[in-house]
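Suppose you are handed only these lines of text.
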Amino acid sequence: MINRWNQSEADKLGDDLLALRVYTSQLQGKEEDLVLHGGGNTSVKITETNVFGDEEEILYVKGSGWDLATIKKQGFAPVKMERLLAMAKLQELSDMDMVKYQRTAMTDPGAPNPSVEAILHAIIPYRFVDHTHADAVVTISNTPDGESHIRQIYGKHMLIVPYVMPGFILAKEIYEMTKDLDWSTIEGMVLLNHGIFTFHEDPKISYDNMIRNVTLAEDFIQAKGVKTLPVEKAGAVNTLKLAALRQGLSQMNQTPVLARLNPSGQSVAFSNLMGCRQITDRGPLTPDHIIRTKRTPLFLQDDIEVEINAYASAYEKYFNAHNPGDLTQLIPTPQWAIWPGLGSISFGTSVSNMMIIEDITNHTMKAIHQSEQLGGWKALPQKDLFEMEYWSLEQAKLKKAGKAKDMQSKVAIVTGGASGIGKACVEMLIQEGAVVTALDINPSIKNQFGTASVLGIQCDVTSDTQLNDAIHQTVTHFGGIDMLVLNAGIFPKSMTIKDMDTNTWAKCLDINLTSQQRLMQLTIPYLELGIDPAIVIVGSKNVPAPGPGASAYSVAKAGLTQLARVAAMELGPKGIRINTVHPNAVYDTAIWTEEVLQARAKHYGLTVEEYKTNNVLKKEVTSVDVAKLVVTMLGSVFGRTTGAQVPIDGGNERII
Ligand code: ZN
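From them, the structure of the protein bound to zinc ion can be written out as follows.
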């Protein structure tokens, strides 16, 4: 493991102890083999003078909800040492009381809740304390001879602590173990099945000790000739099976779930391991992962429905076996799956949760594979894992999420997503919690939205190959398709039927009609496996009220509208809704170049400005206005409506 200490960076911080604490916390947080997503915690003890002129020793400890990789000064909770040390002497303290008394011992009520390990940090008689869940340490510890290997590696310079539940019980255990200990004889502690602590007066030495001791564990693994997971190529993915899996899990979860096929070749190798199912059935890498990953993954082999149900009943059995009587069972949906030959799949009710699960399981697979070579993967007993999974303080971490948005974790495809109405639809859908595949011929689509909620794909909608590829990417990336917005279109320059050239006619029909029909057709099997699936067609006012010079465009949009009417009847029995919007005079779109705008205005004998608000309400219609209607039509407000055509044109006398 690389020691990332940079003396000149550290020198800039002078003797600002909290700044140094932030610095080495981030160094550890950025090392994925040490901590992942909120794991681990660090602290510094600082003597301060309060407003009454009294000196107080304050423990600045990582606040819950903060991540070591990105923590700042305000991420540390200041807690009075005197109170924490008094708490360590108590015989018993419930979790809730611990949280309450820690909070009342803070000198800043606006700071975050202190880490559940605050009392333990207070007991350790050194200024700087570092704690991580280093992969190498838990990899060795989670084997039958784990403890003796750990003792062999560390000799007497580390205190070895058998697994106990984190929080007050762990602090108490260590308080008792170290009562008569000469702390100067050790430079840290290894918590079996959990992680590692180092400490020192000097932040650099505490950090150095962390890196060096974790490296000792890594060296041990290497010396045993343990191999890392190779990179293997995935077989052909049955995307319909993946969509069916996502549908099943969403139904069980009673809210849409996203699913992502792990793109790493190492996950493929893991899925191909002999006895993979039995190995992964033993438990997670560290107990704190269980709230994210559950105890075991789903193993996909044959019938999805049977397998999901078997997972759920095994989970129920596990719950009933360990429930002390007063707990409510969590929804028994798996959080990740192994798909032999194809790798792992991560689930989540948001993209960020899903990506966290992918990160955690990547480390889990690597560690399990190494532990197998060190004598066999051996996770904690179910009882200990259950206690952690149903620990009120851990569950509280998950509850912060707040109320789910209307379209939370629903998956949409939007064509023509780079500009105008399409872009506005993409933005509004992600605002409502959906994830979106945005297709556009414009290559800027790939990085345009700058969020993991959007998969931007450059795509020529007239190419079947490219459409198929876009669908494949959508399903492997998000797990399925629930919504389709057929928006891509071109508006050729004004031309009478007499002057129409064959190419303009053919191209206009190809892009505005045929390619949209093809995408609809290719998407239907996935929509059938979608969650409240719906299609919205972006038509045009030209359908009910055409004008001269726009025959190709009007015919294409009229054809698309007719397609929607037939589709409403064909797809209705399968629960798929399809509705059409007919926008008019939306000028902030790619179609409306200045040239087209002027030509149309001139045709009606108006200025461009008059032309823009030339409707009954005298109001300009923008892309965002149309997107609002499109997203509403995709949602529950239109849950009982299909085959409808709704104008959005500020009121048009010819249509009214
Ligand atoms: Zn820990």
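What can we learn from it? The chain is about 45% helix and 15% strand. The longest strand covers residues 41-49.
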